[in-house]
Write a structure and sequence with these properties.
Four copies of one chain form a homotetramer. The first copy, chain A, is built from twelve helices and ten strands. Chain A is of the alpha/beta class. Chain A has an eight-stranded parallel barrel with strand order 1-2-3-4-6-8-9-10, surrounded by six helices. In chain A, strands 5-7 form a two-stranded antiparallel sheet. In chain A, strand 1, helix 1 and strand 2 form a beta-alpha-beta unit.
Amino acid sequence: MIPCLTRAGIGNPGNLESFVALAGRHGFGGVDAGGDELLRLMEARGGAEGARAYLAEHGVRIGSIGLPVEWRKDEDSFRAGLARLAAHAEAAAALGCTRCCTYILPSTDEEPARYAARTARRLRTCARILAPYGLRLGLEFVGPHHLRRRWAHVFFYDLPGTLELIGDIGEPNVGLLLDSYHWYTTGGTVADLEGLRPEQIVHVHINDAKPVPVEEALDNDRLFPGEGVIDLAGFLGALQRIGYDGFVSLEVLSQSPPPAPPEEMAARAREAYRRVWPSGWPRA
Amino acid sequence: MIPCLTRAGIGNPGNLESFVALAGRHGFGGVDAGGDELLRLMEARGGAEGARAYLAEHGVRIGSIGLPVEWRKDEDSFRAGLARLAAHAEAAAALGCTRCCTYILPSTDEEPARYAARTARRLRTCARILAPYGLRLGLEFVGPHHLRRRWAHVFFYDLPGTLELIGDIGEPNVGLLLDSYHWYTTGGTVADLEGLRPEQIVHVHINDAKPVPVEEALDNDRLFPGEGVIDLAGFLGALQRIGYDGFVSLEVLSQSPPPAPPEEMAARAREAYRRVWPSGWPRA
Amino acid sequence: MIPCLTRAGIGNPGNLESFVALAGRHGFGGVDAGGDELLRLMEARGGAEGARAYLAEHGVRIGSIGLPVEWRKDEDSFRAGLARLAAHAEAAAALGCTRCCTYILPSTDEEPARYAARTARRLRTCARILAPYGLRLGLEFVGPHHLRRRWAHVFFYDLPGTLELIGDIGEPNVGLLLDSYHWYTTGGTVADLEGLRPEQIVHVHINDAKPVPVEEALDNDRLFPGEGVIDLAGFLGALQRIGYDGFVSLEVLSQSPPPAPPEEMAARAREAYRRVWPSGWPRA
Amino acid sequence: MIPCLTRAGIGNPGNLESFVALAGRHGFGGVDAGGDELLRLMEARGGAEGARAYLAEHGVRIGSIGLPVEWRKDEDSFRAGLARLAAHAEAAAALGCTRCCTYILPSTDEEPARYAARTARRLRTCARILAPYGLRLGLEFVGPHHLRRRWAHVFFYDLPGTLELIGDIGEPNVGLLLDSYHWYTTGGTVADLEGLRPEQIVHVHINDAKPVPVEEALDNDRLFPGEGVIDLAGFLGALQRIGYDGFVSLEVLSQSPPPAPPEEMAARAREAYRRVWPSGWPRA
């Protein structure tokens, strides 16, 4: 498993080059970024080769890119993103990135069966565009109770439901983005994780939860790993045992900006990973 | 379009041979039957050739067979029907039948998004088993309001939702079973039908509705075509205009048995078809 | 069926606006164009609405666009075209065009089984990118004998083989581009065409063949319809009987430029269509 | 990795119960069998539970079943096997078996492109029938040179081509059956194996080759592992390094019956495995 950073939790370290350098200074092996950032990095570094050299120099890989397609709304908006998806996938492939992720809001005002069918069809199309580039699509379920009640009907919100959605999509390159917060807020167990095959997991987020009743845990009120009540040792241990060897990204959503500059937050992130990582920080 | 009979509305005329003979006597070009009945007919007639000869002799084809798979419940029940599906499909293909149909209840006690994903996956599997036999799978939405409220959550119940489901399934051999009662109870219009391509329609049911508010129309309280308030001339006219040339089956669900023996009910069915058929009864 | 022009046979009438105007002047209802031309037309006309107005003013539609993807070579070349494919598909959809076509060379120096598998996979990917835009992919087999022998191994070259390829691809939006020259050079019959369902045909080319032994008919030595030995009345009559109502494009490949300017060649094309069209020129 | 027996090489130990007992006595953890044998075992043991108990008692699992579908010939023959495939898959699932395998002859008298497309379509159908039962389909390429030349055109015969076929089929549950003899006769390397992900491998066969020029190695003239020239330590070591943890079946095809009774051949098989197994025999 490879420690990885997102911008959520450490603040804004500037452009992708700065972000990569920061991650590298603190021993992280990956960063999550947007496809547009990858295109800009290649442009700034004189092409894919220069960008790869920059990443290699800092010992940092691109963990995943976000899905640049509006699959939740009308058909025209959806279609308008597909050319960009292909362009981002091409950039990701050129830089050795093999993962693209999106999240699924756990309730909806639309008729849920119909919305589910549309969601499956559109995400299948996205997966099929990613496939020739060797990219996998990771789907993140979102567990906090307040979001499940936010719109009229409950939608996909937990592991079993998301596996059902993935089964419906039916493409070999679609899997889970597992986030410890959502695992926790949906009552997930270590056994649930141990029941997965490693190739079902595309990407992982970690973070922690405040000591409030789980039904009251807010999506944007998370803690750094080890500061809260989630059994992260259990979470990461299970992933390691089943053979997951991908990225594990810090994603700490919060209502206010990080309390310190990115450099210090990255250092804190490193300490947080050391506390919860199964067998010590993987890079000395 | 080919007039066709089901047993719903005319009562039980006995085994498939009797049913076929009855349909032939009254000028119907098809009957809907079960796959088991097809197997028995072939056995009784010394094989597929004998069965085909019997059908030809009576001028009657097999319009469609029912889907012999329990796709609504647990996975074991689902899987237990797949071998039978292949056997029925083989029998259907041997007798020139190219349609297999199932209906979708319009509400559910399960989480609807998850149930939708499971439904799409399972019906896709069924369609894929039917495909090598040249059979298409027709999906019938069920519109009556009381059934939409019968279980906790609304599910697929109308034309747009069912088209979304078919789009999710994504197989070339899946389409609609259009039933005039469900078209009527979901506020369907002639323009809705005219917006379809003929190959999107696998099978058609006709029947009529009592002159009660549409919200009160019960699923099992239907009338013979022409005896009620549904615009069947509009319904059938639109199907003819777009080029639908498949079967149109009488399906009159009712709370009590038919008021007369099958022979007389088939004669009444013939009169009913004459009243609503776009350009006169198609066979003199 | 809608008479349609390509640039092959009438010469170069200039940009798409000129081409559309020319087609309109001579009563053709469509032109085949490249996706880049559609993008330029929209730019020149201030957007999709302006471009649609221009087409409507001339009574001309876009029959089909070419597939802008290099699917025959290495994987990088293939992937490099997919973003452009999505962009072209979006432009086509905006202008009401629903067809995208490519041709398949009938022999190859690669191992044919492996090349067939790669071809099916890549064309499937293209079809899946086209699908959300409502576009269909038409595959044209290429029949002339000299091209079947040009490379070491025979590949897909006729109707049955191309239907097998389409069956392998397995997507609902893939069908045939039928070209009368290839139908003729592969010994196609009227009965072969009558065995097709109209939705299996995405696009049609017509042209004629010199009175040489069919084995010697060269791909780039074609005649205008009615000037040669192909049974075009049989060809077009069969298409009309089965219900094909799409475009029929003139494609006359030749070794030298057309003998007259585009305006005159379009007039000759009109006369050629009048000679072979099933029931007279469709537009007075 | 789990040592497993087929009947090829040890002779006929009788019915499945005897075969399982024999495998268990000699420390093998699996046997490959036919689906019909599984059905008979369940019948003989009073159902699935009894059959599972018998297997558990002997410490033996069902490694894989053969694909009971004639996918190489006409369409009727193909379709005739699909109901049996579902029945065998159901039996396999009931007994904990998750693999079904078939082999691909490396040359053909049919047009290879067209035959490739048909092969992909039919194997996809098989995979889709296996999927709901949790079974994977393993495809074995066949490398000996004499078989590549036996029919007019070369077909799929090596690892890269078979991966292309699997990519065309496009189903998540299709992978390789890797046979050391075919790896050897196609010039496979340890690096080729190390380039695979473990989930791409469904099943493995081992055996050895006589010290003749590789072009002369006959398909049915194999040796026990360790008696010939194949680098089986390299083969098995690579599989172990990439994380393959499935069955490794002895398959020694030969022109004459085994030189000793099954009991002795199984003992010899055990010795053969001990010679080549990466880290000693896995069960004491």
